[in-house]
């Protein structure tokens, strides 16, 4: 098993104590999963809710989850200078999710059930931004899925994935997820090209007052930083510059009106992990207390089964 250095990202043998590249102390926290969950009835129980309540998520445990997510693509993706910038972004995203083309409708792209659909009629720069945006939705879900795996000591499967999808359906949860995706996308594209359109739409449709949700925005800014750090293991400065150059090639107009949303303060590590735990536990409690919510999980399961 390889252990990836949290400082420079280089792979080391599991017996190493210090990184062979930069000499930083290696984090070797081993997260063990084992139990199988074969139904929603086995997942959504009072006992598991108690476990989620009693599991204290330290920043160290959280960082171990982020490192696991990095490992999914780290040994597989290599930037290929013989390919276009868009092709390289496709290759990176493809290490995490399946990608399908769409050729109708107004949506630039969307993510559902481990799949990204993207409109190939878009200029290459916009396809790149959309792919990063939608991949962020996936990585956001992946973080919470592995959180549950860690707390409950279970293997990931469709039941875990459906529950995490359920936890994002409420307006405030969609609002947070969309903010994270827009903010992460914005870190890799041309300054002034940031567009928070779908985030603003969710706010307006659900009459969400931004001032009343400053804590969620701060949480979203902090999670966006974590996902940005994941992507920076693959998108180095040279790769990032090529993405920005594509905006010049495509003559994309700048509009600085929405970049203000990036200016949110961030949460400290302990507050962040506590808030994330609250999000999971509150969704779990809702399924325990409302039969309609529990039944809805089966509807979501169909999203995965029909793909």
Topology summary:
Elements lengths: L1 E3 L6 E3 L26 H4 L2 H9 L4 H16 L10 H10 L3 E5 L6 E4 L2 E5 L4 H29 L5 H9 L4 H16 L10 H9 L8 H19 L4 H13 L19 H21 L1 H15 L2
Parallel strand pairs: 3-5
Antiparallel strand pairs: 1-2, 4-5
Q: Could you characterize what this model shows?
A:
The protein is mainly alpha-helical. 55% of the residues lie in helices and 7% in strands. The protein is built from twelve helices and five strands. It has helices spanning 40-43, 46-54, 59-74, 85-94, 124-152, 158-166, 171-186, 197-205, 214-232, 237-249, 269-289, 291-305; strands at 2-4, 11-13, 98-102, 109-112, 115-119. Strands 3-5-4 form a three-stranded mixed beta sheet, with helices on one face. Helix 3 packs across helix 9 (214-232), helix 5 packs antiparallel against helix 10 and helix 11 (269-289) packs across helix 12. The longest helix has 29 residues, at 124-152. The mean pLDDT is 89.
């Amino acid at each position: 098993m390889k252990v990836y250095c949290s400082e420079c990202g280089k792979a080391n043998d599991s017996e190493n104590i210090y990184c062979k590249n930069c000499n930083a102390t290696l984090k070797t926290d081993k997260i063990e999963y084992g139990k199988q969950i074969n139904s929603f009835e086995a997942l959504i129980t009072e006992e598991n809710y108690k476990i989620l309540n009693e599991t204290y998520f330290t920043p160290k445990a959280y960082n171990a989850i982020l490192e696991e997510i990095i490992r999914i693509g780290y040994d597989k993706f290599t930037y290929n200078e013989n390919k276009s910038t868009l092709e390289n972004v496709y290759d990176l995203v493809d290490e995490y999710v399946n990608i399908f083309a769409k050729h109708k409708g107004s949506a630039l792209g969307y993510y559902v059930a481990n799949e990204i659909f993207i409109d190939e009629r878009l200029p290459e720069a916009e396809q790149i931004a959309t792919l990063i945006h939608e991949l962020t939705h996936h990585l956001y879900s992946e973080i919470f899925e592995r959180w549950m795996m860690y707390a409950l000591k279970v293997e990931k499967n469709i039941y875990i994935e459906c529950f995490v999808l359920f936890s994002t359906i409420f307006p405030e949860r969609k609002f947070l997820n969309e903010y994270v995706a827009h903010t992460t996308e914005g870190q890799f594209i041309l300054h002034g090209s940031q567009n928070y359109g779908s985030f603003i739409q969710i706010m307006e449709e659900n009459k969400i007052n931004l001032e009343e949700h400053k804590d969620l925005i701060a949480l979203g800014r902090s999670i966006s930083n974590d996902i940005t750090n994941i992507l920076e293991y693959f998108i180095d400065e040279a790769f990032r510059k090529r993405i920005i150059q594509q905006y010049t090639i495509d003559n994309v107009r700048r509009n600085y009106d929405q970049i203000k949303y990036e200016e949110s303060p961030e949460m400290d590590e302990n507050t962040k992990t506590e808030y994330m735990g609250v999000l999971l536990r509150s969704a779990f409690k809702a399924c325990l207390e409302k039969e309609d919510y529990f039944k809805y999980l089966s509807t979501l399961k169909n999203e995965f089964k029909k793909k």
